[in-house]
Design a protein that fits this description.
Blueprint lengths: L5 H10 L7 H11 L11 H16 L26 H14 L4 E4 L4 H5 L15 E5 L7 H11 L5 E6 L2 E2 L14 E5 L11 H12 L6 H13 L5 E2 L25 E2 L1 H12 L13 H9 L3 H12 L4 E5 L14 E6 L2 E10 L2 E5 L9 E5 L5 E5 L2 H14 L5 H12 L17 H11 L9 H4 L2 H11 L12 H6 L3 E4 L11 E6 L4 E7 L2 E4 L8 E5 H5 L4 E9 L1
Parallel strand pairs: 6-7
Antiparallel strand pairs: 1-2, 2-5, 3-4, 3-5, 8-13, 9-10, 9-13, 10-11, 11-12, 14-19, 15-16, 15-19, 16-17, 17-18
Helix pairs in contact: 8-9, 10-11, 13-16, 14-16
């Protein structure tokens, strides 16, 4: 990799507050991060990696320092910065830190190759070697298997995410034994396709084409276009799957394999690499995917639903549908971008990407094309896996939401009060004293906490003011509504207003404040011509008097009505 140009170095020095780019400042910069034996004032590969790394960490994160990602070889094999952490990985780490809101301990960042080879569980092409991977620990986020599962479900939705795993689980949903990880998680990212200069001009042209492509083009169609681009590059070839050689099991695009022995695919990885890198579909492109035994099981599955679950687990994508026909699927039912499984009798033989018009793009061992990627006449298939655009689902959801009327604050109050109160119109209904409705008990717990300590008998079902305050809190109007509520609170609140005391104009959900002639206050709510209150014959809410009788001046010194706005 070429060193940064002088202009780029000057710009980074200025951003980091290092002053002018000269030998003296280079030496100061080196002293800050390197051991004394590595400080020489010369701008070489080591200093270039260090400058890129410090710049990226400072620019793209808020909670991390450059030293946290140092190689842990302790200076035995390298300066501590054999490469630099990439922007996509740092941005994802910062997103994880911000989302969970807890300190993150980096247990492994960059690695030099000798140190990587000395570690148990490491692989020769580890993404730690290129700055695209990090191992980290977060208390309450990664310390139990249940927490790791929950965290991985969120992490794998991040941009350019490739793979995350911990002891017991990985981002594909499979069980994984990795005791050497302890309570930490490993997460890594893919190199963005637009920056993959080392792959060649093919990917640069693909990125440019993608930028100018019409927005209306579907992801499956983009995957087909991408597959055709690969077919036009003779350097890509067929790589035979080898269970003992991990490089034959990994996506050559994700892992940036140079032209040569591993610069190619087998039929399965080719299709799903096109889905992921060409179509932008969130699916796996490494590993076994739809292997032979799984393809046979999918054909023999009793229902399409059973076959669908197998495919979803294998390729790590839920937005798919399955088309099956044991006698062969007519080409008229296939769409461009479908991943099609070819069978010989009932034995799964080949996977190809349907390109439309009776054509397919695949990477296969065909004698006429010397085992390379090509566009050919489509062969028969008995199973097709089709990507379903999430946009269609989102549109349906939006349409459904439009039909649903949005409740006003007053209507929310009325609904809460009715849900929490008994509906008997009898003044002295035969309910056990303090036996509030289960829904009201749960609402009390959510609104005021299970550990509330109120005096008897209010703790059994709570009093009139607590009932009204609970409804206000649970309706989402004010989460801090006081239980010892007074008129001053509602008068000062911008979410309520006084309305005229007239039973003909009172609406459901209006709050009624009464001061009896003996000076005692009382709170209740209006609902369909009746009163819902929590202090008549027991300490739990129920329907009682008619609205008209409650609003009368008999026995009262004042009556005020409030309405949520």
């Amino acid at each position: 990799m070429a060193l940064l140009t002088k202009e780029q170095r000057q710009a980074r020095f200025k951003y980091l507050g290092l002053g002018e780019y000269n030998k003296e400042n280079i030496k100061k910069f080196q002293k800050k991060y390197l051991r004394s034996r590595d400080v020489d004032g010369v701008y070489g590969t080591n200093t270039d990696n260090l400058l890129r790394h410090v710049y990226n960490v400072k620019k793209y994160t808020k909670n991390f320092s450059p030293e946290e990602f140092k190689c842990e070889c302790g200076g035995r094999y390298c300066t501590g910065y054999p490469t630099y952490m990439k922007k996509v990985e740092l941005e994802n780490l910062q997103s994880i830190r911000a989302h969970f809101g807890k300190p993150m301990t980096i247990t492994c960042g960059m690695r030099c190759r000798p140190y990587n080879n000395s570690l148990r569980g490491s692989i020769s092409n580890s993404k730690h070697l290129t700055g695209y991977a990090t191992d980290f620990y977060m208390k309450g986020v990664t310390d139990t298997l249940a927490n790791r599962k929950s965290s991985i479900r969120w992490i794998k939705k991040l941009p350019n995410h490739n793979y995350t795993y911990g002891n017991g689980i990985n981002s594909y949903g499979f069980r994984l034994s990795a005791p050497y990880m302890g309570n930490a998680l490993h997460t890594d990212t893919n190199k963005p396709i637009t920056t993959a200069a080392s792959i060649g001009d093919l990917f640069a042209s693909t990125a440019a084409a993608a930028a100018t492509t019409s927005k209306s083009k579907s992801k499956p169609q983009k995957a087909v276009d991408y597959a055709k681009k690969l077919a036009n590059d003779d350097s890509w070839h067929y790589v035979v799957w080898n269970g003992n050689d991990k490089k034959t099991q990994l996506c050559p695009i994700c892992h940036d394999y140079p032209k040569g022995k591993y610069h190619g695919f087998n039929c399965i990885r080719f299709v799903f690499s096109c889905w992921r890198h060409g179509g932008g579909i969130d699916c796996k492109c490494d590993g076994g995917l739809i292997h032979n035994s799984l393809g046979n099981k999918m054909l023999k599955a009793k229902t399409d639903k059973e076959a669908l679950k197998m495919a979803q687990a294998a390729i790590g994508c839920k937005n798919i549908k399955i088309i099956r026909n044991k006698n062969g699927i007519p080409q008229s039912k296939l769409k461009p971008g479908d991943a099609c499984l070819n069978f010989s009798g009932s034995t799964y033989k080949h996977l190809f990407l349907y390109a439309g018009n009776g054509k397919m793009v695949d990477c296969g061992r065909w004698s006429d094309t010397k085992k390379q990627i090509a566009v050919r006449k489509a062969v028969s298939c008995k199973i097709a896996i089709r990507y379903v655009e999430p946009a269609a689902q989102a549109t349906t959801t939006t349409a459904t939401k439009k039909k649903t009327k949005k409740l006003t604050n007053r209507e929310k109050l009325a609904k809460c009060a009715w849900d929490y109160a008994y509906h008997s119109s009898t003044k002295k209904a035969n309910y056990p004293k303090g036996a509030a409705k289960p829904a009201y008990k749960l609402a009390l717990d959510k609104a005021f906490g299970k550990k509330r300590r109120w005096s008897t008998p209010a703790k059994k079902g709570a009093s009139c003011d607590v009932f009204v305050a609970t409804c206000i809190r649970m309706a989402g109007i004010d989460k801090h509504a006081p239980r010892g509520m007074g008129r001053s609170y509602l008068d000062k609140s911008k979410k309520f207003k006084r309305v005229k005391v007239n039973y003909k104009t009172i609406k459901d959900g209006d709050i009624i404040s009464i001061i009896w002639k003996n000076g005692n206050p009382h709170w209740c709510m209006a609902y369909k011509g009746y009163i819902l209150e929590a202090s008549y014959g027991g300490w739990y809410p129920k329907r009682t008097n008619t609205l008209k009788s409650r609003l009368s001046k008999s026995g009262k010194s004042s009556v005020v009505v409030y309405r949520a706005v």
